[in-house]
Amino acid sequence: MFALTDQVAIVTGGAKGIGRGIARVLVQAGARVVITDIDEAEGRQAAGELGVEFEALDVSSRDSCRHAVQAIQERLGPVGVLCSNAGIFPQAPLDTMTEDDWDTMIAVNLRGAFFMTQAVLPGMREQGYGRIVLTSSITGPVTGYPGWAHYGASKAGQLGFMRSAALECARDGITINAVMPGNVLTEGLKAQGEDYLREMAESIPTRALCEPQDIAFAVCFLASPEARYITGQTLIVDGGQILPESFEALK
């Protein structure tokens, strides 16, 4: 069950972190994976290590998305799975946040999901099958964090986009869903230091930080043929992080 044998799968932002974890699990499920990233050096290195293909891509550009999908389809055939994972998360307090800070965040995280979805839809409609999985976040749709108002807006916006897009695609055999990670042990999080990681783990009921593969397994399920009757939905993967009313509940 949940096999993706010979499915052509695109993972945006696949050079590292969650995206790389997703690519690894999709390969294990039998998919023909193409990771895309704006960082060509890291992207090609990751592709080589995982034994998958690489395509350079700037998700904030509609032309770049269309050209990348076209190139992938010409080489490998119709795209059956899109994991729209590319995202950025620079902090910026409200009082100093610039228009460029806001626009860049929205362009990559939200507009990128729209451009990539739009790029793969014609091929998915033609074959009457498709699985689109967005990487959203608990930050924005459920929780908030100082300095991430623009990030939260982009991630909440992804879910609003997803629900209406899912309705438009439902009769074409295409599902669109989202995973909502909590704190994932990626390169960016590790850079915060051991004290930060220990404190963060203590705020999670499982007392452990999420690994990229934990998100990837959820993505793999939503990308599978067996998930055909699930669309427009979200799956929180956070070790129970958002459950406690207060720290008292974790004692």
From TrEMBL:
GO terms for molecular function: 3-oxoacyl-[acyl-carrier-protein] reductase (NADPH) activity. Its EC number is 1.1.1.100. Pfam families: adh_short_C2 (PF13561). It is an enzyme of class 1 (oxidoreductase). GO terms for biological process: fatty acid elongation. Keywords: Oxidoreductase. Residues 7-183 form the Ketoreductase domain. Belongs to the short-chain dehydrogenases/reductases (SDR) family. This is 3-oxoacyl-[acyl-carrier protein] reductase. It comes from Thioalkalivibrio nitratireducens (strain DSM 14787 / UNIQEM 213 / ALEN2).
